[in-house]
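name: query_chain
kind: protein
chains: 1
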Amino acid sequence: MLNNLGKTQVGRAALRPRLVSAGWDYLVIVVWLALLAAVFVPLYLAGVRVFDGLGMVSSDLLITVLTVLPTGAYLTIGEAGRRQATWGKRRAGLAVVTASGKRPGALRIVMRNVVKLLPWQCGHMAVSRLAGGHEVSAAILLLVAAYALAGASIALLLVRRDRAALHDLVVATRVVPWP
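structure:
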């Protein structure tokens, strides 16, 4: 859409559709986590300790591969796809565009989701360190980073007129109503 100066003007998604889309997307993520639990809880109860004996880096990598990467893939495949939206965004009538209103490239969408999932990854790494009882000071720093990044993103979403969250600002994207 063009403004009166002939420049591209990007609309903004209202807060309610953004929250609705997040809810639907979290439902998808929770289903994935429930499937993981359906596999790993019985293994644990049967005495199979998948994480025992793993070093901190190996444990971090395994958690990342099982949780963060599938979530990132879901978000990226949807937002880089034809409709420029995850299942949740489609249900809420939203799409991801560049700050100038164009279709974002795949690399921009990947980077958007890396920034979006960074607090989650920091939280995972903090919990694994706390659960293992080592690197407590690193765990505290990771928790502070997780909460600071998530808090900044939520605050930006709430106060900015264009509803751009931290991940949108970093890679110059916006979530807008689907045309």
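note: The chain is about 65% helix and 5% strand.
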